[in-house]
Amino acid sequence: PALTAPSASLSQEGMGVVLDQTPAPDNVGAILRSAAAFSVKAIVTTARHGPEATGVLAKSASGALELVPLVTVGNLARALTEMNDQGFMTVGLDSEGSENLGSVALRQLLVLVLGAVVKGLRQ
């Protein structure tokens, strides 16, 4: 996929998902399937350390690539700042986090940030 601005694919309603260094195509395919089931508007990933658009990704996505756009950005920190400036609430999901997701007041313009399986989220 070509590099693009994440807000171009995220409408002013709904939820997006950001993948922070999640290169395994089978994992990304599973995330795409879940994203399609929950009406996620787009998945944002980085050009480096992101998933390759291969047959493995398409097969593991089981058709979800046609339902959820996969947006590639050059710099994840800038993309998250842009999404915040557009009014999106960004929430990083991390097993070592100090907050319980159930206790966080989420709002409609939401972006969930997922990290790599072993490394988790970067700073």
The low-pLDDT segments are none
- Taken as a percent bin, the fraction of beta residues is 15-25%
Tally of strands: 5
> Biggest sheet, in brief?
5 strands, parallel
What would the average pLDDT be, to the nearest integer?
Answer: 77
- Give the ordered list of helices and strands: HEHEHEHEE
Kindly state the percentage of residues in helix: 25-40%
Task: Write up what this structure looks like.
It is a single chain. The protein is α/β, with parallel strands linked by helices. 28% of the residues lie in helices and 20% in strands. It is built from 4 helices and 5 strands, in the order αβαβαβαββ. The protein has a 5-stranded parallel beta sheet with strand order 3-2-1-5-4, covered by helices on one side. Helix 2 runs parallel beside helix 3 (55-61). The longest helix has 13 residues, at 25-37. The protein starts with 5 loop residues before the first helix and ends in a 9-residue tail after the last strand.
